[in-house]
Amino acid sequence: MPALLSIPLVLLAAALSASACADDPAGPGSQTVQWEQVEWSGGTTNVAILNPTDGSPGPHPVIFALPWGEGTGDLVLSFIQRYWGEEAPSRGYYVVAPAVRGTSMAEGAAELIPEIFALMDAQLDYDASSVALVGASNGGRGIFHAALAHPGGFKTLVGLPGSYSGAAADLTTLAGKRVRLLVGELDTGWEANSQATLAALEAGRATASLNIIPGQGYALSLNVATLMDEIDSALGR
């Protein structure tokens, strides 16, 4: 499948929010994102891929990242830059991030997500038992649509923030999976939605937790190394 282009992530710094935390990485320097295309019944979806940089042999774990906002390519790249562009590859992860709006995944996930996994199967030396599904805002909604559509593909979910607005009974599909939700203390609307999602996950027997980040609002500033430590743990690494 032909690549569309490669873009140095360091060029994306200007696109980031001014609220980025000092604990966030400055950027992966010469690291580049490779864009691939997935054809499915809904059209063509562009998928950003970042390779591991630790030099270890495969198979490698995967951060499968759903972006915030409208899910455009530039927002995919800003989401990678904010959290996943340096620490994850340095720990041996692929980062795979489709340009999708998370809320639209309610309609298309059942067809699109398996096609992205087919791309991964064809091109990546990845560990199918070690895929972490992460998303923020619209992407934090989308992680639930993606996981419900293809539950066998993902071992753990992280929402930054994330919530599910469908029937609570749907989440029984995620029984036994580790799901972590993070939300800012000042973001009261998302906190209420996250609390409701947590209750539904627990009722469905997922291993779920909600972290309310003191003093923070909608855009979370996180220690990325700590975030990755927790993903490593959830994947049993």
Describe the fold and architecture.
The protein is α/β, with parallel strands linked by helices and 237 residues long. The chain has one domain: Alpha/Beta hydrolase fold, catalytic domain (Rossmann fold, 3-Layer(aba) Sandwich), CATH 3.40.50.1820. Helix content is 31%, strand content 27%. The protein has six helices and nine strands. Strands 1-2-3-5-4-6-7-8-9 form a nine-stranded mixed β-sheet, with helices on both faces. Strand 8, helix 5 and strand 9 form a beta-alpha-beta unit. Helix 3 crosses helix 4. The chain is globular, with a radius of gyration of 16 Å. The chain starts with a strand and ends with a helix.
CATH H-level superfamily title: Alpha/Beta hydrolase fold, catalytic domain
Which sequence of strands runs across the widest sheet? 1-2-3-5-4-6-7-8-9
Major β-sheet annotation: 9 strands, mixed
Task: Give the averaged pLDDT, no decimals.
Answer: 88
